[in-house]
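The instructor's notes for this session suggest beginning with a concrete chain rather than abstract definitions. Hand out the sequence below and ask the class to guess, before any prediction is shown, which regions might be ordered.
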Amino acid sequence: MRVKTIGLIICLSFFLFACSEEKKEKAPPPPQEVSIIETKAQDVPLFLEFVGQTAGLKDIAIRARVEGFLEGIHFQEGSTVEKGSLLYTLESQPFEEKVAARMSGVAEVKTMLAKTKGDLDRIRPLAESHAVSQSDLDAAVAAYEATLSSLEAAQATLRAAEIELSYTKINSPLDGIIGRTKAKVGDFVGKDPNPVILNTVSQVDTILVSFFITETQYLAVARSLAEALAKEHDELEADFELILIDGSVFEHKGRPDFVDREVNSSTGAILVQASFPNPELLLRPGQFGKVRIKARVAKDAILIPQRCVMEIQGLHNVFVVNAENTIETRDIKVGSKVGSFWLITEGLKPGEKVVFEGLQKVKDGAAVNPVVADVKLTDQDKK
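After discussion, reveal the predicted structure:
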């Protein structure tokens, strides 16, 4: 009897243990913890970026204006030069000979002028006393005036020869940076096929950046600038930023110089030029960079991180945690990218909870425990 009682107790214990395990298996799991962000309305500046190329405020080509052999180079390539400093000298002997010949011609005409003036001075009193005929006086006057004209012509040819001689010395037209010379000492310059452009001097204390924008982008920027002028905030709204090739932002703001008069019919783009102060001479002509322009400010906009958004065949949706802390799928429409965020145009309202991490772990209708993630829009994202 005692054995039966012990067996009954053991069986009852196994039964109770099995029931306990079954209850444990059937107990619902606790809600999964998910990271979420709460949407909020804010004013977001929207920027446009364009690829541009730099040029000097003035890029002056240095040319040989007369033909001849290059005799001297008087600068260091890539250095700064001052206005009026000597850059090149060409052989001057042929031009010096021409100047000497022209000076001789002027002297000869001056001698003739002295003779004709003496003849005129002698004949005029005689003509007044009728000692010589009027025709003799007229001939003397004509000879004197003809010699005066010859002197003016001779002096003009002398000046032309002296100008040609001055062209054998080539000076810098401005303060700036000079590049690599395209001719060496001994080259015959000033005539094809030899190089005509010897070098280029660039004024780079201010840098010009040229870029193209589309018709639609032009309208957006023009309206933004018009609004800025109307609100007397043109100093702020019209500032352009230049992003250099290494990703850094140039420390000086730029201003628009001009917008071309027409849209190119073949490309649908319009040329824009902006100028940037360059006191440190960091920028050089020919560099590439991105010009960033504030197009407009989106009022009461909603931004969410791009990692929150799922895209399937061009359609965008997010997981939203509703008031009952369950997941629901929401279709949305996205606008511009703002850094690592999407600007949401439709589908979300301020104060809603959007799943931020673990999208692959949740599904529609699942109960969750939302935890707010610390995600902020940085200054870099705003640009």
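Then share the key points. The chain has four domains: 32-45+298-372, 48-56+205-296, 65-89+168-195, 92-167. Residues 233-237 have pLDDT under 50 and may be disordered.
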